[in-house]
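From the shared-data thread, chain only:
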Amino acid sequence: MPAVKEQPVKSLGRWYKSTLSNKSRGVEVQNMVEEGLRAIDRTALPGKFKCWCLQFGLYPRISWPLMMYEVALIRVERIELRCSV
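Structure, as tokens:
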């Protein structure tokens, strides 16, 4: 059985890594949002369908990590600002 230092463990939708800190998860969530926004922007869909993808595709995907981990309020505000642009 590998140790947590060697391989992260996922339990109940939450990743446990060797540091056991939530600081790195905020950065990962922000990167996930930026990648998702880029993917939505690259599609050839019209604007209203891009809004639909954002509302029903990306938002539910990022809401779970934001509820599970203690993400700093500043980082959440940056994510919100990036999504609203």
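The two ends are 46 Å apart (CA to CA).
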